[in-house]
Amino acid sequence: MSGPGARLDQFMGRANAAYYAGRDPFSDFITAPEISQVFGELLGAWTAVVWQLLGQPDPFMLVEAGPGRGTLMADALRLVRRVAPACHAAARVHLIETSPRLRQEQARALEGLTARPASWHDAITDVPDGPMILLANEFFDALPIRQFVRRVDGWDERFVHDGAFIHQPASFPPAHPAATRAVPEGGVLETCQPALDFTRAVVERLRRWPGAALLIDYGYDAPAHGDSLQALRHGRPADPLRDPGAADLTAHVDFHAIAQVADGVDVWGSEPQGAFLAALGLHARSEQLARAAPEQADDIRAATARLAAPEQMGRLFRVLGLSAGLKGSLPGFTGPRAAAGNEGDAP
Prior knowledge:
The protein is an alpha/beta fold and 347 residues long. It has a domain at 26-143 and 187-224 and 250-324: Vaccinia Virus protein VP39 (Rossmann fold). 36% of the residues lie in helices and 24% in strands. The strands form 3 sheets. Strands 2, 3, 4, 5, 10, 14, 15 and 16 form an 8-stranded mixed beta sheet that branches. Helix 6 links the parallel strand 3 (91-96) and strand 4. Helix 3 packs across helix 4, helix 10 runs antiparallel to helix 11 and helix 11 crosses helix 12.
């Protein structure tokens, strides 16, 4: 890359656009729905219960952001069709996906599973009005981030030039929910404006129509700081600044900041993924499958451990819920989140 360099979020956005357009990303990583069908089934059951708590709206928008190959939605719909046919009939499936190639894969995965043809959109704002239940699994982590480095008297921002970081003086966004975080000199503070914008768009819908959203990703829920940018190439860690477009670039999700911009709706969690899935019945369903297919029992139990064990995905991945107009508690959560307070001294 020549010239003065590109701001990190611009570099990351272009690199990931090229990566997703030019290769199968699932050759480099595997997501929870691909690990076990139980993941999608549990979210299908969660959807059916939430639909009941919303007063059984008909129709309602069943939305997934970043649907991958369509595996999660397919598994969820199979479960809903079996256990809650009225919910299945009321669901209007909408998928937020910009990749034409992935849209084709998702259409094949959902063939025969929707009560009405699914619809695809580039953005959440394109989804028709109405009550909504939204699922977003590993959607936020690939959204482009900015990185700011604390100086004694202010901030530098990271740019990418010729495969390395360079720093330029900058001002930290004053309205960002992390603006009050105390960061030591030399510390890195990350922002992800697209994640905040998406959350605000979801919240705006929930203020107008009843519904719920489930956000699942790896990340943290504390007023933290640090460099979490990472890359995977051929399933192995790689230098995120070299060969843009050849690797999947991701960063940990700041659930603390996301919760802070969800004004006017109920916020639940975030909870560790392992605890959330266990509350939905992960272990009981996995054992049911293991008994039904004893020759696959070891694989089924290993997949369950991968999803829920603290040393695997169970603690690193977190689940945040948003809701409005719910007649009861959001399933899987111990209770609504308290209002966010001050995070510390201003930087």
